[in-house]
Prior knowledge:
globular, mainly alpha, 7% strand
Amino acid sequence: MNSGFKKLYRYQTITYYHGKKGWNIHLARLFCLIASPLTNLFYKGLRLISTYPDYRLRETISTSIDFIESGGNFVIFPEDSSKGYFEEMKYFFSGFALLAERALKHGRDIPIYVSYLRPKDNTYIFEKPIYYSELKKLHPDKKDMAKYLLERTNNLGKIDLETIK
């Protein structure tokens, strides 16, 4: 989504609209002729930091640490959406723990907010934050951290908002 118009168009057309959303490939291509340039502008305005599962992750971490140290806030979406989006999430990647650990070494204890978009009533639910140092005490292994946060996220989707009000 953040690597240029050509790759964005290909991703939106083939992977997202055709693959994940199930649109007809010709309809997806036609729609993305208009949607991709607008999406490209939108994402550039967001100042996204791309992540990669290879050697480029080092640059992502460095850029992210610089951003944190300049007082910036950011959002990480750790869910695995390779097979589409589900009401209950199946898996969280644990890369966020690598960034949080590095930030902690730089003297920044990052608050981690768990959130959930409930599709049935289009409502975002946010839980109070847990600081990385606390999470690390509860679950020293980063995969266990991811599993713990995944369970908390899925539990947010089960909350009856009427009982909270």
